């Protein structure tokens, strides 16, 4: 995070993400708003990013938050919205990889091992190294049912497969509840018909610590970095004052979406609107012509320099303008239209010119 | 057409040959190595890219390639967020702190404040000395760190050594070990999701299973 001092010595920071600002707004300015609250943002955030490719520090994020509800319907809505947003911008082969913020942590806590071994187990899980995982769990004398659960969970790729995993014993109550919530989420995703695009990843955990439920990342095969991420954070907003306000949401990085679209061969559609420059020594007529053209949906500009018509046409060529129009003292009089692409000119009435462009006179 | 899996291989140095041998044992023989940007392999699902070993972690991090074989030390140095799928056990080396034989410094603990350290591994070096509670000045060099003390550029160096030969030749003495390293199969996190089946097959072949 970028931090610096205000003139009076107070510590200031640039926002590194939008969830905290949203939490602040919800607790200070929306206290009487009925729940659930649905919010969105498109905003710039600032981060120091270890990057050897570019030195960007400012990123544009688009995100949503659903505040005041902790049902699987709320989580399902967020995931379905994420998928449809990515499809809407034109991306193909979108996938979401989803894990649970505290399932792995809670299970590791029951095993009573030190931090270093926890890190080692997470690394083995991320690589799906079941051989290494089994060995490490044996060395640390994990109970056999926990060992089996770890292996099973690391093999599950869909939320459906989770139904076969359960642990008996009261110390696993928390974990079992989390597994149940994921199963419920799967049912919601079925209703949205997006279950094929959501995959389970037991090893997926986020660096940000405020998540309490599902955590997820969105990606496409053409880009090696996630397009965005999100999750459920039920205990975060209360830090800003208002108690007990569960929430769920996601944020997408606009820059990554553009990279992914480019990688998928998407071409930004060219502007098809006609461009016209109006030139005349009769300024009042020219101004009127520009106004009429703009009202008809044409991109029109006035020749504001006093250069020769040849120079204007030359400029129009470079600026990929379609026509340069020279008007007389009145719009009733015929105008000279230079078609820059065809390198031709003709004299027509302004009305005819406008009609030919497809605009309404 | 389905996207091919790209694997980055060191274009020179001591891990190049063992890398090619390991891949060949796993059924991936490089077919055309000379002066090509992307080399075909005997397995039509894979293509190979030759790159500098210390750039490979970054390529993998950004997904410019799906897989890469490079040193654990370089992955740490470039702070690449990649999956280290496998320890290939070749390219064994140690990152050490060394001083000229005549130096009065005998332990890392004796390093005086503001000592200049020459290294090709500025990130690891900075973190290591910070952890030791030592304030040092890191001088980044892009090779032959062992010359720095002779030239009066630095009092100590942090460098990679496998046999200790270069250090001995340059009359340098090891006073501390930072880490042991070997070559790793590094994988981009998203590529692992996309090609899980193929990559786990390669993983077990490289392990010598199947």
In total, the number of strands of chain A is 14
In the predicted model, the low-confidence regions of chain B spanning at least 5 consecutive residues are: none
> What would you say the CATH architecture of the largest domain in chain B is?
3-Layer(aba) Sandwich
Any low-confidence stretches of chain A, pLDDT <50, length ≥5? Answer: none
- In angstroms, what is the radius of gyration of chain A? 30 Å
What is the general shape of chain A? Answer: elongated
- Give the number of helices of chain B: 7
Query: What is the third-level CATH name, the topology of the largest domain in chain A?
Result: BirA Bifunctional Protein, domain 2
Characterize the biggest β-sheet of chain A.
Answer: 7 strands, mixed
Report strand % of chain B.
Answer: 25-35%
Distance between the termini of chain B: 28 Å
CATH class annotation of the largest domain in chain A: Alpha Beta
CATH superfamily of the largest domain in chain B: Periplasmic binding protein-like II
Helical amount among residues of chain B, as a percent range? Answer: 25-40%
User: Order of SSEs of chain A, N→C?
Assistant: EEHEEHEHHHHHEEEEHEHEHEEEH
Task: Determine the CATH superfamily of the largest domain in chain A.
Answer: Bira Bifunctional Protein, Domain 2
Tally of separate domains of chain A: 2
Structural class call of chain B reads alpha/beta
CATH class annotation of the largest domain in chain B: Alpha Beta
């Amino acid at each position: 995070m970028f931090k610096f001092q205000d003139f009076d010595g107070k510590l200031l920071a640039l926002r590194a993400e939008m969830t905290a600002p949203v939490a602040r707004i919800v607790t200070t300015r929306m206290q009487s708003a009925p729940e659930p609250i649905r919010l969105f943002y498109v905003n710039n955030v600032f981060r120091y990013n270890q990057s050897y490719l570019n030195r960007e520090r400012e990123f544009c994020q688009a995100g949503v938050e659903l505040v005041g509800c902790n049902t699987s319907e709320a989580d399902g809505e967020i995931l379905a919205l994420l998928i449809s947003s990515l499809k809407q911008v034109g991306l193909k082969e979108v996938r979401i990889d989803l894990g649970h913020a505290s399932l792995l942590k809670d299970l590791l806590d029951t095993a009573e091992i030190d931090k270093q071994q926890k890190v080692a187990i997470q690394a083995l899980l991320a690589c799906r190294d079941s051989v290494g995982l089994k060995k490490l769990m044996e060395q640390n004398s994990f109970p056999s049912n926990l060992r089996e659960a770890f292996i099973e969970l690391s093999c599950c790729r869909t939320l459906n497969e989770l139904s076969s995993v359960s642990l008996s014993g009261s110390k696993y109550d928390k974990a079992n509840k989390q597994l149940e919530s994921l199963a419920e989420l799967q049912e919601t995703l079925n209703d949205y018909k997006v279950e094929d695009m959501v995959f389970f990843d037991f090893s997926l955990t986020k660096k940000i610590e405020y998540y309490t439920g599902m955590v997820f990342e969105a990606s496409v095969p053409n880009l090696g970095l996630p397009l965005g991420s999100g999750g459920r954070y039920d205990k975060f907003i209360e830090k800003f004052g208002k108690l007990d306000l569960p929430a769920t949401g996601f944020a997408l990085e606009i820059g990554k979406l553009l990279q992914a679209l480019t990688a998928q061969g998407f071409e930004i559609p060219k502007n098809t609107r006609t461009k016209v420059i109006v030139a005349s020594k009769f300024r009042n007529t020219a101004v009127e012509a520009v106004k009429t053209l703009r009202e008809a949906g044409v991109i029109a500009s006035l020749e504001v320099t006093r250069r020769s018509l040849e120079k204007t046409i030359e400029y129009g060529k470079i600026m990929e303008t379609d026509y340069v129009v020279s008007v007389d003292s009145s719009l009733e009089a015929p105008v000279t239209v230079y078609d820059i692409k065809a390198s031709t000119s003709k004299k027509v009435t302004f009305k005819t010119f406008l009609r030919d462009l497809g605009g309404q006179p | 057409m389905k996207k091919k899996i790209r694997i980055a291989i060191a274009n020179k140095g001591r891990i190049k040959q063992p890398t090619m041998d390991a891949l060949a044992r796993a059924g991936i023989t490089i077919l055309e190595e000379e002066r090509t940007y992307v080399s075909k392999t005997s397995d039509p699902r894979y293509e190979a890219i030759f790159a500098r070993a210390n750039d490979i972690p970054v390529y993998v991090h950004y997904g410019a390639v799906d897989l890469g074989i490079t040193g654990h030390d370089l992955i740490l140095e470039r702070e690449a967020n990649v999956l280290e799928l496998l320890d290939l056990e070749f390219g064994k080396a140690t990152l050490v702190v060394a001083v000229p034989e005549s130096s009065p410094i005998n332990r890392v603990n004796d390093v005086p404040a503001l000592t200049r350290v020459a290294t090709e591994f500025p990130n690891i070096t900075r973190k290591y000395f910070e952890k030791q509670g030592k304030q040092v000045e890191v001088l980044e060099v892009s090779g032959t760190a062992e010359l720095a003390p002779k030239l009066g550029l630095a009092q100590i160096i942090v460098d990679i050594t496998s046999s200790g030969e270069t250090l001995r030749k340059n009359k340098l003495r090891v006073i501390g070990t930072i880490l042991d390293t070997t070559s790793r199969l590094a994988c981009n996190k998203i590529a692992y999701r996309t090609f899980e089946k193929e990559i786990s097959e390669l993983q077990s072949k490289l392990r010598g299973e199947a």
